[in-house]
Amino acid sequence: MENLLDPAVLCFVLGLAAGLARSDLSLPRALYETLSVYLLLAIGLKGGVELARSAPGEILLPLLGALALGVSVPLVAYFVLRKIGRMKRPDSAAIAAHYGSVSAVTFAIVLEYLRQAGTPFEDYSAVLLVVLEIPAIGVGILLAKRGAAGPAAGWRSIARELFLGKSVFLLLGGLMIGVLARPETIGTVKPLFFDLFKGALALFLLEMGLVASRRLAEVRTVGPFLLGFGILMPILSAAMGIAVSLGVGLSPGGTTVLATLAASASYIAAPAAMRIAVPEANPALYLTASLGITFPFNVILGIPLYDWASRLAHQIGG
Amino acid sequence: MENLLDPAVLCFVLGLAAGLARSDLSLPRALYETLSVYLLLAIGLKGGVELARSAPGEILLPLLGALALGVSVPLVAYFVLRKIGRMKRPDSAAIAAHYGSVSAVTFAIVLEYLRQAGTPFEDYSAVLLVVLEIPAIGVGILLAKRGAAGPAAGWRSIARELFLGKSVFLLLGGLMIGVLARPETIGTVKPLFFDLFKGALALFLLEMGLVASRRLAEVRTVGPFLLGFGILMPILSAAMGIAVSLGVGLSPGGTTVLATLAASASYIAAPAAMRIAVPEANPALYLTASLGITFPFNVILGIPLYDWASRLAHQIGG
Amino acid sequence: MENLLDPAVLCFVLGLAAGLARSDLSLPRALYETLSVYLLLAIGLKGGVELARSAPGEILLPLLGALALGVSVPLVAYFVLRKIGRMKRPDSAAIAAHYGSVSAVTFAIVLEYLRQAGTPFEDYSAVLLVVLEIPAIGVGILLAKRGAAGPAAGWRSIARELFLGKSVFLLLGGLMIGVLARPETIGTVKPLFFDLFKGALALFLLEMGLVASRRLAEVRTVGPFLLGFGILMPILSAAMGIAVSLGVGLSPGGTTVLATLAASASYIAAPAAMRIAVPEANPALYLTASLGITFPFNVILGIPLYDWASRLAHQIGG
Amino acid sequence: MTPTPLKMLTIVAEAAIERRIVNELVAAGVSGFTTVEARGFGERGRRAGDWDQNRSVRIETICDAATASSVAERLLELWGPHYALIVWLHDVQVLRGGKFGADR
Amino acid sequence: MTPTPLKMLTIVAEAAIERRIVNELVAAGVSGFTTVEARGFGERGRRAGDWDQNRSVRIETICDAATASSVAERLLELWGPHYALIVWLHDVQVLRGGKFGADR
Amino acid sequence: MTPTPLKMLTIVAEAAIERRIVNELVAAGVSGFTTVEARGFGERGRRAGDWDQNRSVRIETICDAATASSVAERLLELWGPHYALIVWLHDVQVLRGGKFGADR
Ligand SMILES: Nc1ncnc2c1ncn2[C@@H]1O[C@H](COP(=O)(O)O)[C@@H](O)[C@H]1O
Ligand SMILES: Nc1ncnc2c1ncn2[C@@H]1O[C@H](COP(=O)(O)O)[C@@H](O)[C@H]1O
Ligand SMILES: Nc1ncnc2c1ncn2[C@@H]1O[C@H](COP(=O)(O)O)[C@@H](O)[C@H]1O
Ligand code: NA
Ligand code: NA
Ligand code: NA
């Protein structure tokens, strides 16, 4: 329950409450956009600075593990959605892409969680985040189009949407700046990009709470199956993430990170790409599942759970 | 005069000057909205952290005092407006509600003023702010509707407007987060919500200066009575605030705070509620009085005056 | 090449890359406006605090030198554009005004550059920035209107556009606040206006990169002459700036500052004024030259070059 | 497709009554509406749109002529006397009339 | 109420001349106008609306046909040659014509 | 100047397809268009406009009647089935018809 007493998590709960109570609290879209650019860039920057400290060799195996997750999680999700949920193919594929891809904000929260607890984790974690963003989206598109001529908008335009989309572009850009910039000069932007990070995350979570509450309000319309999926799928993905982590030799902290990444569902890159590549999928379904159910679950309960499980797995495994 | 040499107050003067000189300086509304959300939340948070340190018992009496002020100030104001100013009932009631309610920004400025001077004040001050927001608005609506069937929009929809309005919601939400969050984790959002507070206040005051200047430009149209009211009423309210403070045993610093709260006029919660509950009141009147006259007066001259009077009262009383 | 490894410069490059690759990255205009207000005010504030430390006498000569530059640079630019470039009179005059005036952001970057390198510079540098903004715009208008009845919009309305334009107004306002405010109270706004400055500059440069990239994309349409002008003119102006600096006795750091100011081209005050005073000039030309060519050149290569030349000149001269 | 003639009802009002206007539209059974942020000037003075108390919204809804007139009258009756508010109508052609309830 | 037929004059122009356009409208005696932020594309290229120099405004004013035409002509004459600017007219029906000077 | 009668085609669509709509307009040879940010409500639910996935744009373009109809049909055909999208037409008069290709 301690996680609930973190101010950023409390801000999220406040936003949820405001939305559910139909308060007239609203934040300007310009703030939403600004904070999301800021957070992506800052996550990249921090990740880049840490990456510069790590040895190139040690990244390879975890990277391959992340890639394997990025492909297998959406396949499992698709199977569950089609066979158990009996959902339509495009909807299943689009939702699967969301759950295979990742949420940068959830990543930021788990890192803060570990820092707070004093748990160390691998320096190259941000690379795992970047690597996990895209593959699942490709898998989702392939699943949607099986047998069809190709994605509605052409592969080229989808690839551009992905690699030039703000999410990947800013994370990668930030990473590169973090790696390239000399340490002395990084210090000059530290007050904005590092010291304010947690506060900005809290403010963003307030806004996310408002957005999520509107999605949550639609849960009735999407049916009980998707509600269950939105909670059980991340737990399943986290378990897969823990298994892979043990396999590639991550530390307990790193295991929590990879489990949380696997459990998180994308709400920036995947919705944008799916809307264009699989227009026949109903956005209400994937947005409600990803943002209305899984995101709140992960932020409030999931992360502590995955951390507990990761540590347990290491105790048993070690 | 020293107050005038504070950078935040100077920013307000700069904004006023820009507006009066009809400079093309303008700040985006998204910034106005963002800063007002930020300030309300930060005031709440800080207040909550301080509140957590204070003993529950000591709050009771000052709270009752604040409530008494919140009811009596609008009654006095209404009397003055009706009998001396000969203004229409709805206008008088709406203006009275503004002067009985409070301005969170003015509250923030007086706290910075006291901190700068090293004057201590009660830990639970933010609770007084929250408690003073609403009663006067209720009083104002009752005054406007005396004998009538009820407020234009129904009591329920007005209550929701008030308690779920962004002003009360964020202050209360911030307070609760400040009380609930563990001290270690509050530290992580300190750079944004505490360290930047005064600078953000300065930027907000720049914008308020621009908004106030447009209101000030309308002073001619509202007549000399309202101009006088906008300066003398806050002084009268401050005197009432000082009397109550002595009665409930506040420190000199706390007295300055309560006097300033009494003297301040609302420009977020009250205008929103009055526009809906008393549509026949002319907004030009209450906005010009509250924002064009009283707010600048309090920021520039009022606060030092109330502080001086509070200390004097304590010397005489003590 | 070291300058390229500064995070703010790298952010600019990232923005340029995003724009040229046609990424869907975009920042809200409200952020652009907010950051430009913030930067102008912060530059003024910092400048004012430093100015308060300098002796009034020592400013006079450098001030006159700056004025001379502000008049002579646009004359030289106009001559080049008319005689060598064979451009139309209004276009030449408008472009000349841009190159005679200055860019506050370029100024901020050169100051950070010098601070990073530990090179001292004169305390009153911000005054030179303010003084250089306007004269060249006046010269440009006169050049455009030679023989004509007067500027399209009347001198009065142009003067108001200039002195009440946000650029001059905020710089001057900030300067005055910085000079007037008591040092203890300036400390309270330091976290926002001083500590965050470099980070905010980096974020602004990301956005400027996006804007510049669109201008850069138009370079084909403006022809090779303007491309050459956009690179060679700032070098020529910087040389003039160095000569004047030696004449008025600036330090090596101060010489770099004045050279960079001379080399920088305005993109806030001048475009706004020229659009109104010389409507027949084609904005695509001056915006592309100033923002698409000269600004990136100065940020990436120009500043290190001017610094090197300034130090060389002092070694030879000294 | 032959275009179906319908009415566009446009409303410019102060933001304070946006929610209530929308409720009226929904109650009148319109099939949808589109809102943009606005500022402006009118009988009740300048609305500069730079803070809560002086911003406006511009709402437009396509519906049949009868609904358009009756909603317009009702809005003016309810809020015309006390709020910054104007409404106007004009003719439009839509391509899929069914969507707007034209063939109900 | 029988609706009064009037003209809607809509102006899309670069933001640099907004203040001056508004002055012309006021000088022509219109009863009000509504402004929204816009971006777009035309003869003078793309106006992406993301910084001061490339944003546009869309201003609409309801007035009688004669005023609408004469203002439109005047704006095009004054700023058509040098600024991004288009104007168009269309017929509208308003419910309280008096407010727009229709029965002056 | 005698005003030239032309058509205004207005499109309200979810932001995800803005770029592609604009490409269609350009391909159809319109002389320009004007875009504003919008939110709203329709068949496909509420679009509150407060984050990427639920904002809309309102695009208007003046062109001849034939172009207006054919573009409208094409947009509805391409994206009507899967995206939040409505289009409508109305008559406008412009003062410098040549600019809009009216006398081509
Ligand atoms: N003649 C008009 N043409 C266009 N918009 C108008 C006109 N009159 C008023 N408005 C708009 O309607 C709002 C309210 O009008 P009013 O109630 O007259 O103050 C104004 O703020 C304008 O945005
Ligand atoms: N055919 C058109 N339809 C709608 N808006 C247009 C059209 N042509 C131009 N515009 C708008 O008017 C602005 C100025 O047009 P222009 O002077 O042709 O560049 C453009 O940026 C567009 O916003
Ligand atoms: N009847 C209508 N009148 C005006 N705008 C509408 C109407 N119906 C839909 N819209 C707008 O078009 C968008 C997409 O409509 P839809 O595809 O029906 O959800 C909505 O979000 C509204 O902004
Ligand atoms: Na995932
Ligand atoms: Na009060
Ligand atoms: Na220059």
Key phrases:
heterohexamer; A: 318 residues; mainly alpha; 16 helices; globular; D: 104 residues; 5-stranded antiparallel beta sheet; 2 helices; elongated; binds sodium ion
Question: Care to describe what's here?
Answer:
The complex is a heterohexamer, with three copies of chain A (318 residues) and three copies of chain D (104 residues). Chain A is an all-alpha fold. Chain A has helices at residues 7-20, 29-51, 56-84, 89-100, 104-117, 125-133, 135-145, 155-163, 166-180, 183-195, 197-216, 219-222, 224-248, 252-263, 269-277, 283-317. The longest helix of chain A has 35 residues, at 283-317. The two termini of chain A are 27 Å apart. With 104 residues, chain D is α+β, with helices and mostly antiparallel strands. Chain D has two helices and five strands; from the N terminus they run βαβββαβ. A five-stranded antiparallel β-sheet of chain D has the order 3-2-4-1-5, covered by helices on one side. The longest helix of chain D is centred in the last third of the chain and has 15 residues, at 65-79. The model of chain D has no long low-confidence stretch (mean pLDDT 92). Chains in contact: A-B, A-C, A-F, B-C, B-D, C-E, D-E, D-F, E-F. Chains B and D meet through α2, α11, α15 and α16 of B and loops of D. The structure holds adenosine monophosphate (3 copies) and sodium ion (3 copies).
